[in-house]
Amino acid sequence: xxxxxxxxxxxxxxxxxxxxxxxxxxxxxxxxxxxxxxxxxxxxxxxxxxxxxxxxxxxxxxxxxxxxxxxxxxxxxxxxxxxxxxxxxxxxxxxxxxxxxxxxxxxxxxxxxxxxxxxxxxxxxxxxxxxxxxxxxxxxxxxxxxxxxxxxxxxxxxxxxxxxxxxxxxxxxxxxxxxxxxxxxxxxxxxxxxxxxxxxxxxxxxxxxxxxxxxxxxxxxxxxxxxxxxxxxxxxxxxxxxxxxxxxxxxxxxxxxxxxxxxxxxxxxxxxxxxxxxxxxxxxxxxxxxxxxxxxxxxxxxxxxxxxxxxxxxxxxxxxxxxxxxxxxxxxxxxxxxxxxxxxxxxxxxxxxxxxxxxxxxxxxxxxxxxxxxxxxxxxxxxxxxxxxxxxxxxx
Length: 396
Hints:
Blueprint: H1 6-16, E1 20-27, H2 32-39, E2 47-51, H3 56-63, H4 73-90, E3 96-105, E4 116-123, E5 128-135, H5 142-160, E6 177-184, H6 187-196, E7 201-204, E8 210-211, E9 219-222, H7 230-243, E10 247-252, H8 263-271, E11 279-282, H9 287-293, E12 298-302, H10 303-309, H11 319-331, E13 335-342, E14 348-349, E15 364-366, E16 373-374, H12 378-385
Parallel strand pairs: 1-2, 1-3, 9-10, 9-12, 10-11, 12-13, 13-15, 13-16
Antiparallel strand pairs: 3-4, 4-5, 5-6, 7-8, 7-11, 13-14
Helix pairs in contact: 2-5, 4-8, 9-11
């Protein structure tokens, strides 16, 4: 199938009409795929973003970490996951998101010791899959290899979008090695099952991999992260330094007094942490629920949250229920690191300002103001940008 063929143009038109929203990340070769997609009218219905992090520093910046090897299946998968996470921040809620990553080692102006090869991966709501090809050295010049990889990218994208198309294997000769692998189910089913109440916890690793039974974190930073901001990052790093343990963030898809988060909302918020930190997704809206799910864990909170934890009004004005909850949290081996906050009235609020019952004093440890003070909130950032307020911050 030649790019000038009517069949090729019909394929790309079908991609544009597929209803998918695609983000591409291509390095090393094959960037002509972007031009192929846009050569046919209607590309804006499909393509929402295309990145070409060609230099090693640019590739590391896009992924958030320098890959062990630029041209590898692992790097293609990481590019696809990162591209899809980026798409989640750009596309309308409910979009059928596709991330595609491609990396290649082709003819160069210097002799190449290794194989001439390409790796292409996609991540959609159903799965993560990649294809790999080792091409015969000397059989094609640089332009021909570039064209081959570009067409392979378009064909692999068609598969990701559910469009019938030949395999990229059809582009290479019979004696050239080609293989396809389905890596894993992507996030769609797991997150949707969590929102539906079929799962209680999902761990999202920094590379986007989702695990249903990961080891529990020792330090957990719960919040809505709508959006995540620099204050969250600084407080997380300080908590790790204080506890000398790695930290994970946590987002509960359920809330005490608000509707559950939609799957698309969850995916967009998780996308903020790609290649930065692990995220625990739970159905644990209160700290009592969290302590049952994560016993012996240190929770990182602000002084405003600590104040709510010991306020009877957040327990239906039942002081006994407050004591019962705090007693169970203490018995679980959990504890709280409490950061100074500035409230809406401009008052500095610290743990020392909160009347914690003496019997629970050991549950709370204050982070001194000289080490950290948070003067900005996600709600203020949303207000400044005119965003709708959607908060899943736990109240107990």
